[in-house]
Amino acid sequence: MIDDIRYLIVFAKIAEVGSMSGAAEALGITTATISQHLTKLEKNLDTALLYRNTRKQALTPDGESLLETARAMLDLYEKGIIGFKQRSTLMTSSLRISIPAMFINSSFMDEVARFIGENPDIQLSIVCSDNRQDIIGENIDVAFRIGDMPDSSLKSKPIFSFPRRVVASPDFLVRHGPIRHPRDLAAVPWIGLTMRADNRHFRHPSGEECGIRYTPCTRVDNVAAAYQLALRGVGLAAPPEFMVQRDVADGALEWVLPEWSQEPMRVYAVWPSNVSSSSVAYRLIHVICNALQHVSAMAA
User: Fold this and answer.
1) Which of 27, 63, 93, 244: disulfide with 49, CB 3.0–4.6 Å?
2) Is the pLDDT of residue 265 over 70?
3) DSSP line for 98-152
4) Which of 170, 263, 176, 157 is closest to 214 using CA atoms?
5) Does the structure show a pLDDT above 70 at 293?
């Protein structure tokens, strides 16, 4: 049935332009393919549709009877499919992306702002959330995500990574100290994140490693909120270094077990597998990747 629809479109185009070569040019296929499609349609219908020789062609009575149906198929194709492709081309100037809210006050936004400035014709919509968005369900063209990517039908590309460290306010450490080893961290209040597991893995320069699990006293869905609660002495948090360096320098926060490190957090660009490599989505991925892929720490 699907093949017959294709053949009907070819037949209508032949009748419209008056030749197979003209139909081939109009539809962007070869004359040989046009001839094969017409022959297959005639075979399927068990009738001749065109009288043809090397110099001219004319519709048979059965061809004239079928032409109205074929024209309707051609009209649907040209108004529907071709029109949709044209609209899609126009819509490529709009882009919807998702970024972690924690990047709002970072150099990541410098690159986004630079992309906007260099592409003034692109209408950019940005979702800022530390929670992972449903890329397909929310019509997101590109999402920038933190943490390892689970297996899925989505495409992904690592962009950069940044270090993170445990911090707490001085008065919190007075109330819950001393903290001498990562094992001690399991027994003190933490500010948990809804999008992250309640565990941490630490490594010492000596080679010693230690993993802990903890039960948060408070849970939030935003890294910036966890950082602000840590500032106010609610619990421990492990935000990226770029977010807290100023408050550590001012004495409002302190590094906890600064000699112990955690794995840097990786940032990925994630997008639907059917996004065209010529789209503005790919252009943005390329720009961000080139600007930040060698970044190991982001300065606010």
Assistant:
1) 63
2) yes
3) EE-GGGTTSHHHHHHHHHHHH-TT-EEEEEE-SSPP-TTTTT-SEEEEESPPPS-
4) 176
5) no
Q: Summarize the confidence of residues 274-287 as an average pLDDT.
A: 75
CA distance 141 to 127: 11
One-letter amino acid identity for 89?
Answer: T
Q: pTM (2 decimals)?
A: 0.60
What is the amino acid identity at position 132?
Answer: R
Q: Tell me the pLDDT tens digit for each residue of 78-125.
A: 776 655 555 554 445 788 899 988 888 888 888 889 888 888 888 889
